Amino acid sequence: MAIKYISVNDSPDDPGGLIKEVLEMGAGFPGPAEDILVAWMLRLGEEQDPAEAARRLLENYGIAEGPLSDDACGRVVELLRQAADFPQTRLAGHMGRRGGRAGRGDR
Asked: What is the DSSP letter of 13?
């Protein structure tokens, strides 16, 4: 099932324009920033790499560098920067892990 967002800011990297709306709110965004980041990640398509999407958003929205505001909007930008820096190799190491009986080889 595909979800179609109405926002004019909707894009593959920012489904529903969620991050753009937070940035437009600026200091008026009440937070919590962590909830927005989780909602953004859950909205990304399965084929989307969150680190790559975050890098593109930071660049496209002009927030890749510079000081952060001391509010919830600044925290969203900080979290996006952290997501962009997340190494894909670290994620790949966890994707194939098998735990429990399967990991031990019990039959």
From this structure: T
Report in angstroms the alpha-carbon separations of 91 from 40, 58, 76, 86, 88.
18, 21, 21, 8, 5
Q: Please give the model's pTM, rounded to 2 decimal places.
A: 0.76
Which single residue is written with the structure tokens 């920033």? Answer: 33
Distance CA 53, CA 44 (A): 9
Across 82-98, b (16+ Cβ under 10 Å) vs e yields ebbeeeeeeeeeeeeee
Which spans in the chain are helix H? 18-25, 33-43, 50-60, 72-85, 88-95, 100-104
DSSP 47: T
Q: Tens digit of pLDDT for each residue in 2-56?
A: 666 778 889 999 999 999 999 999 999 999 999 999 999 999 988 889 999 999 9
17-46: buried (b, 16+ CB within 10 Å) or exposed (e) per residue? bbbbebbeeeeebeeebeebbeebeebbee
